[in-house]
Amino acid sequence: MFLASNGGGWLGDYFIHSCGFRVASARKTVNTIGFVGAAGALVLMPAAQGPKQGIAATTCTLTMAGLARGGFSVNHMDIAPRHAGVVMGVSNTAGTLAGVVGVAVTGVLLQHAGSGSSLAGCCRNKLEHQSKFTVEMARSNFGLLTLVSGEWLPARLKQSPQRT
């Protein structure tokens, strides 16, 4: 993800400086490429015929998610340039708390199922297994649509600030 995140930043800069994109358009384009790529890789995951194909699909998913970071990880500087460190700290804390809860939930699921292989067998058929990844793909695309449309922002935040 480190290389892909940096690649996303470079791609965004390329769109701005070489292609003439506005900053917001360049970031949204990088996010779109990353989110759509990650969603597509998630759809391929259930089709994996073995561990190597599963690892390849996972790697592709995480690479594309890393690429998407190049579009939104710099938002802290846009939101509060003088307090970007504080804003970054608060957002990272929220993300870390979600990660802690996710690990705890995963532990409960594995304990309930007995092992990872039992958990994989919880799906009665391939269609049910595919549907679990399709739900995640839909969630990723919902995030993409929210980002691209910008409709979730209150009207006063959409207005450009008056500079003096």
From TrEMBL:
SUPFAM superfamilies: MFS general substrate transporter (SSF103473). It comes from the Eukaryota. It is found in: Membrane. One of its GO terms (cellular component) is membrane. InterPro entries: MFS_Na/Anion_cotransporter, MFS_trans_sf. Keywords: Membrane, Transmembrane, Transmembrane helix. This is Uncharacterized protein. It comes from Apatococcus fuscideae. The lineage of its organism: Eukaryota, Viridiplantae, Chlorophyta, core chlorophytes, Trebouxiophyceae.
